[in-house]
Amino acid sequence: MINSAVKLKSASRNPIVFIIIFSFFLLIVSFLYDYLTEIIGLEYGINVVQNNEVHNRTLTYKIVLACFIAPIIETYFFQSVPYHILKEKKFENWKIILCSATLFGLLHFSNLAYLLFGFFSGIVLIVAYIYWEGTRLSKVIIVCIIHVFHNVLVLFSDLVNLK
């Protein structure tokens, strides 16, 4: 048991391991979202996935937005700012996680399914923000990298239609 805790502690200081672990968690959230929306569509004939305004944009626009602009802005406003404001007010981590993830989910609201996807993705990102303990990269940078990596994978899967 103590050996596991030491390994987890060291992972929270190794940026590559940390990014891989939290990117994996985001991929699980994405796969569950895709799976559940597909099942609902097949089982009930309901298209719960609606295209948003970004869906019909050029690839260059999507890359710039999803891989540069959105991760930076979203990490700052939906992980960093809530964390520091609520931590200053002595909120417990679980309350910070709930507030941050709710804000992140609301930002991604185009339908109920995507709101839930945003909420659970927000949980992964704020937990990464809270638990990153490395010294070479700030919490904002590490979460941005995780977010960018996830968005690149999503864009790639859309391009090759892996869904």
Automatic annotation (TrEMBL):
One of its GO terms (biological process) is proteolysis. It holds the Pfam family Rce1-like. Residues 59-152 form the CAAX prenyl protease 2/Lysostaphin resistance protein A-like domain. It comes from the Bacteria. One of its GO terms (molecular function) is metallopeptidase activity. The chain crosses the membrane at residues 16-33, 59-79, 113-132, 139-157. This is CPBP family intramembrane metalloprotease. It comes from Pedobacter petrophilus.
